[in-house]
Amino acid sequence: MSAPKKVVLAYSGGLDTSIILKWLQEEFGAEVVTFTADLGQGEELGPAREKALKAGVKADEIFIEDVREEFVRDYVFPMFRANTVYEGLYLLGTSIARPLIAKRQIEIAHQTGADAVCHGATGKGNDQVRFELSYFALDPDIRVVAPWREWSFKGRADLVAYAEKHGIQVTADKRGEAPFSVDANLLHTSSEGKVLEDPWEDAPDIVYQRTNSPESAPDEPQYVTIGFERGDAVSVDGEELSPAALLTKLNELGKVHGVGRLDLLENRFVGMKSRGVYETPGGTILLAAHRGVEQVTLDRGAGHLKDELMPRYAELIYNGFWFSPEREMLQAAIDESQKMVTGEVRLKLYKGSVNVVGRRSPNSLYSLQHVTFEDDAGAYDQKDAEGFIRLNALRLRLQARRDRKAGKND
Length: 410
What we know:
Layout: E1 6-10, H1 15-28, E2 31-38, H2 46-54, E3 62-66, H3 68-80, H4 98-112, E4 116-118, H5 127-138, E5 143-145, H6 147-150, H7 156-165, E6 181-184, E7 189-192, E8 222-229, E9 232-236, E10 239-240, H8 243-256, E11 261-267, E12 273-279, H9 281-297, H10 300-319, H11 325-337, E13 343-350, E14 353-360, H12 368-371, H13 384-409
Parallel strand pairs: 1-2, 1-4, 2-3, 4-5
Antiparallel strand pairs: 6-7, 7-12, 8-9, 8-13, 9-10, 11-12, 13-14
Helix pairs in contact: 1-7, 3-8, 4-5, 8-9, 10-11
């Protein structure tokens, strides 16, 4: 395969991607275009531009973009309409960010005439799969460069030596092994590796960066009301907010009350188990609130079907199939279910917990007249239940008679 001529690199400006940038130039003689996405990771992105310029990237081929609104509106919110969790617990904060980064890389490649894209994911993880499945779904002929599967570096010492040889700044904390690796965006933080590799040992306090410990959270609960329109959150305590601003607000509330911590031993798509420690304060509140508004607006059949589809939908996102036809088919069904999911949910936040304590909607399916223990004014004839039960019991009675008869003949 011929060497790529021009490569769009997913670039953070950190040590690894700075080394990758130089390696692309040295190994292939390729021109490099950098793309840095502001996903709400909380880092200063200005230095990435200066580092890219110093590395020889043209000024008009350094792309640093604030994609927080697009991230929440077009990726996080559609996922939350399905109440999506992987393996019953994980809110997919890393998984859902990768398709957006990949999409912008492909768009920039087309814009700049690049013939390849590059990511910094390792050959052991899920992210390599997520990036590359997205790349190929959007451009089946794109060349993909995955340095961790191609270069000869064996570990951190090799990277530092290469950086020093090529004048790449290495901060003091990067000369030794980092205690754990971190990925962050507006939805969550993810920590893996090193001090977290023994699944029996507690995660040390330094791992948690986005939430107070539940033990140190306020002794008084806080109540919050979240408004929804057609399945998406639109307001907090009556204040209308944009998608990114709303998630930021919920993150702030969740941080104070220690909401959203998860220590998970999960099954990676590539076949191994790994331990991840996640903090998803706003997302945890949002998930509880969305389920709360569905409780009052969603028909039983539709709600139960959504719950059956959700694990498959979650697995598609976790495994990197955001741009697959089956994910889009499921999304269409999920979005159809949300047309009447409008209303408000009141929640109580207290020492790591979030509980729905109230819900109301102009589209409510809750009928007090039918459910009341008091006089229902003829809304429901309790005698109808007898026929309902006898019909549902028919097959059970027939089986019981057969089995009793068979038992007598033994």
